[in-house]
């Protein structure tokens, strides 16, 4: 039963995305509102770029190393750098495993101990649900994009590849403008936006931690999330620029 549930959890988002991708192509073949299709496609593309960029940053160990070094986290916590990296790895594995609660243990001053309090562990359960949602969105949006292309080619829609490339480019322009505006807002008012994000994302106050004693917030202070957000923004910027110039790169190569 365990493996059946795992298989179902893996197949479910792909099946949903396949259906939605098919519907996009079918509606297009029925001459459905082109404006609505472009908006729908742009929305899916935006979700994909955001979720895949966030997934990349979340699982980028060198980013954690950079932040721990910059913030002198080892000095503040009395936890060696290699143990901090072990902690970040344990957290990333927790996001993808089936454990309900995080059991994080590191060596501090030569003693192996669990450094997170019951409140922090409970909050990480909520965080895991959020992160899994990001991973699921990345899977669904990617599958929609792929299935749309596959079905478009299978149905032999005239100049489909050229159309989809131009659609990617035009959607990327709007996503780029939005990302730039949000990046500026983050630089100007990240503390307020970070507070609003927590109030919307969590239905409890477990995220309100004490920076003087709670290791979760000591290891991952607000500045960590600011720079992670800006890093995600930079990735989206690069991805959008690639998509914007994609028609020029493929010009004359597609029918």
Radius of gyration: 21 Å
> Strand share of the residues?
under 5%
What series of H and E elements makes up the topology?
HHHHHEEHHHH
Total beta strand runs: 2
Mean pLDDT: 86
Question: Distance between the terminal alpha carbons, to the nearest Å?
Answer: 49 Å
Which secondary-structure class do the elements indicate?
A: mainly alpha
Task: Identify the strand order in the major beta sheet.
Answer: 1-2
What is the count of structural domains?
1
Count of DSSP-assigned helices: 9
Shape: elongated
Instruction: Please summarize the sheet with the most strands.
Output: 2 strands, antiparallel
Give the % helix: over 70%
Structure description:
With 255 residues, the protein is mostly helical. 77% of the residues lie in helices and 3% in strands. It has one domain. The protein contains nine helices and two strands. The protein has a two-stranded antiparallel sheet with strand order 1-2. The chain is elongated and about 65 Å long. The termini are far apart. The model is unreliable at 1-5 (pLDDT under 50).
């Amino acid at each position: 039963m365990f493996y059946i549930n795992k298989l179902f959890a893996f197949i479910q988002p792909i099946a949903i995305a396949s259906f939605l991708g098919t519907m996009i192509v079918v509606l297009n073949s029925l001459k459905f509102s082109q404006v609505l299709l472009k908006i729908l496609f742009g929305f899916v593309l935006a979700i994909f770029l955001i979720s895949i960029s966030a997934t990349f940053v979340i699982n980028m160990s060198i980013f954690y190393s950079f932040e721990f070094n910059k913030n002198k986290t080892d000095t503040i916590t009395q936890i060696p750098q290699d143990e901090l990296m072990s902690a970040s790895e344990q957290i990333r594995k927790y996001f993808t495993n089936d454990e309900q609660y995080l059991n994080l243990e590191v060596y501090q001053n030569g003693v192996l101990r669990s450094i997170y309090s019951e409140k922090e562990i409970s909050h990480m359960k909520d965080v895991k649900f959020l992160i899994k949602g990001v991973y699921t969105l990345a899977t669904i949006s990617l599958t929609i994009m792929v299935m749309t292309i596959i079905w478009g080619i299978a149905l032999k829609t005239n100049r489909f590849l050229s159309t989809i490339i131009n659609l990617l480019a035009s959607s990327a322009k709007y996503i780029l403008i939005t990302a730039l505006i949000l990046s500026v807002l983050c630089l100007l008012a990240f503390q307020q936006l970070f507070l609003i994000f927590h109030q919307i994302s969590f239905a409890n106050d477990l995220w309100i931690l004490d920076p003087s004693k709670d290791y979760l917030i000591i290891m991952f202070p607000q500045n960590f999330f600011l720079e992670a957000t800006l890093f995600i923004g930079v990735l989206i910027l690069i991805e959008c620029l690639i998509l914007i110039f994609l028609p020029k790169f493929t010009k004359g190569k597609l029918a």
